[in-house]
């Protein structure tokens, strides 16, 4: 067995977990959908069947004012028990255990009824909370206990009390948001009084044989956060109050330090869980960017934690644990930390899913049923859409041949993996290659398919991707003008002075790629912590320190520009866009909006901006001006009357969107007959 520590049971005294993998809490949006609990039951049951030791649901409020949004879920009434029972029955039928997370949003509530320790508005919501009265505090303690009791009646094996990420209990615990002068404000003993009352009330209500996890903010990463001595004291008090497990919380949602994006090194925050080891005797759970069995095993084997929490990796692959147990780690569909289908959806009030696994949260709606006869399917193109289409078709039982004109698979994934902070795309590409091999897909690499090659196929899926759009502009044929693909493939030399035409996702990727003066910090956790100002020695409150100025060095003088008058990068990912904007700003990349491109000459790019004509000197001008669908094969197919379907970029050439391409692949293949 390759992962003995990860797969070892964990004895909690009154119950035993079958392994050390906890599926971390993630709100899916199904909690609020009509019929959503039936879909949630299927979603969690698949993860239980996949071997995870303990599941924690998305956040459920103990009362109305604690809801994340006006129509968000709460568990406060007996009539609500039945729908939760659907989830627990489904999980337990698969031999799994599941806890319900109790989450009071506090000032993060996106509604005018929010409450907090003090009346201090959060920077991420438009609503200012009211300060909780003593009566409201006492009532909320009772609501937590009552909700936990209802969870117990619904068949949950326990609850997780959310005390981190800047939600209500965390708001009481920190001076940043707790300015009270009564018995619930002041020193750490007073600030901890409310959270500890919540835990004691829950324990009294549910008895001893019920799991209580407390998600403790061990590293607030905001000014006014707790210092290390306070974190240790809180952990000790929580143990005395009766918690079963302490889960690691990292950062507030308003913190300006990335904590789970793809650019964060794997296992970067396990050091903080390790630091608490020995201070308490209850098992500790490490979390954040643990996305492979190897990372999990290293953390557990080295004694940094007793369990590991993974949320998005189990969104990406429900069979994560089972595959690891079978020594098939190379078959795990890796979470690349992109946030596009999960957190970006959640914070946009959409149903969560996964870029690399479009079936996540759609288990009852999107299915790959076996086919009656093994018809022949040709897939043209080996990028994300093509690889996914070939895999899905082979899984259904079709005989699949994939044609790729380049000698290697990958397409846009291969290019993306070269961007600093996006190295995870290579892991995803390796997964697809392994999956294609396992499924017996015939690969024709270095071959451009034509109509003659496609004779005899029952289905033809055209996934030929995109090409960079070259604008009609005087001088665009100047030797100093190159496309982003040429740069990433290493086909051209890039000078010291660079102009990037286009400030969408591609423009920002090129800005990071060309400004990087060192090896990507994503590959070096200690360097990354210094760059973002995280203090592993925890000498200040919140674990913050001055950022390492070497992170601000740029390899080139770069100007990023766009025709739109909006803020550059406005259309980037909802939860990751700020990271990319921060990196380019730190490196001194100049950003200009509202530009009219006039021409390109040996002197550089000629523009009109603010009613003035200017020349931006450049050694290299990189075109990041959009894409066009590659459909060169389509006229030939139509002339020969060969039926085909377009998938991915060949269908729609918008911003590079692997999420849409892979989902479309699943939807199209699911309907093939």
TrEMBL record:
SUPFAM superfamilies: FAD/NAD(P)-binding domain, FMN-linked oxidoreductases
UniProt-recorded Gene Ontology molecular function terms: 2,4-dienoyl-CoA reductase (NADPH) activity; FMN binding; iron-sulfur cluster binding; metal ion binding
Gene Ontology terms: biological process: fatty acid beta-oxidation, unsaturated, even number, reductase/isomerase pathway
Ranges where the FAD/NAD(P)-binding domain occurs: 376-638
Residue runs in coiled coils: none
Cofactor: FMN; [4Fe-4S] cluster
Domain of life: Bacteria
Protein name: NADPH-dependent 2,4-dienoyl-CoA reductase
